[in-house]
Specification:
alpha/beta; Rossmann fold; Arc Repressor Mutant, subunit A; 2 domains; 5-stranded parallel beta sheet; 4-stranded antiparallel beta sheet; 8 helices; 11 strands; binds calcium ion
């Protein structure tokens, strides 16, 4: 999962960056509205955390421009505690959720997880399941037949992206983007390595990651199609 964090208060941004990275997300941080608008036009993200009071371009304008381009990216706005009018304007402009400052990081993490889950088909459960495979999005543990398996952080992120789109093809480029950030870019060869390692760990349990030539990858279970 790749998140764009837009926040002009460096201390808060630092906290948020760490909270998102703790979740295993790749995060890009920008501190003004123009930079946010540019990043949103040129990169692919899974969610946007958007402060409304931003230099150079107001957060609301960033949001309106994003929606005008037809993007359905999940957006969480950050507002001051008393600013009810801001919250309403944000939701009316296409935000999916909001958090009032100050907030607990655990709440931000939980709400981001829920946003991303809803965006990928509305599953209410915190677990992604496919055949004998279960991925707990809260604890970030992966189980095969209820037995936990060890995955590296990157392997887990690739698996999480595949599972969010289980039964559908996800391009190598989308996978690369999902685990990259401006600080840590990942080559497309690296994706092949992660896929190879995941296959070795998952195939004995009937979980297959198929290569769809020219299109990307698809995860499926021999126990039946994803639901
Ligand atoms: Ca601000």
């Amino acid at each position: 999962m790749r998140i764009l964090l837009t926040e002009d208060d460096p201390a808060l941004a630092d906290l948020l960056l760490r909270a998102c990275r703790q979740e295993g997300y790749s995060v890009d941080w920008v501190s003004d509205g123009v930079a946010a608008d540019l990043a949103l036009s040129s990169e692919t993200y899974d969610a946007l955390v958007l402060d409304l009071g931003l230099p150079r371009m107001d957060g609301l304008d960033v949001l309106k421009r994003l929606r005008k381009r037809g993007s359905h990216l999940p957006v969480m706005i950050l507002t001051a505690r008393e600013a009810i009018a801001d919250r309403v304007a944000g939701l009316d402009s296409g935000a999916d959720d909001y958090l009032s400052k100050p907030f607990a990081l655990a709440e931000l993490q939980a709400r981001l997880r829920a946003l991303v889950r809803r965006h990928h088909g509305g599953a209410a459960s915190a677990s992604l399941e496919l055949g004998k495979l279960r991925y707990d999005t809260v604890s970030r543990q992966v189980f095969l037949d209820d037995e936990e398996i060890e995955l590296s952080s990157r392997e887990r992120e690739v698996l999480s992206s595949l599972l969010h789109k289980a039964g559908k093809v996800i391009s190598k480029q989308a996978l690369t983007s999902a685990i990259s950030s401006w600080d840590a870019t990942v080559g497309s060869n690296a994706i092949e390595v992660y896929i190879h390692r995941l296959r070795k760990k998952l195939e004995p349990a009937g979980i297959t990651i198929r290569t769809v030539r020219g299109l990307g990858y698809l995860i499926e279970s021999s126990d039946g199609p994803a639901d």
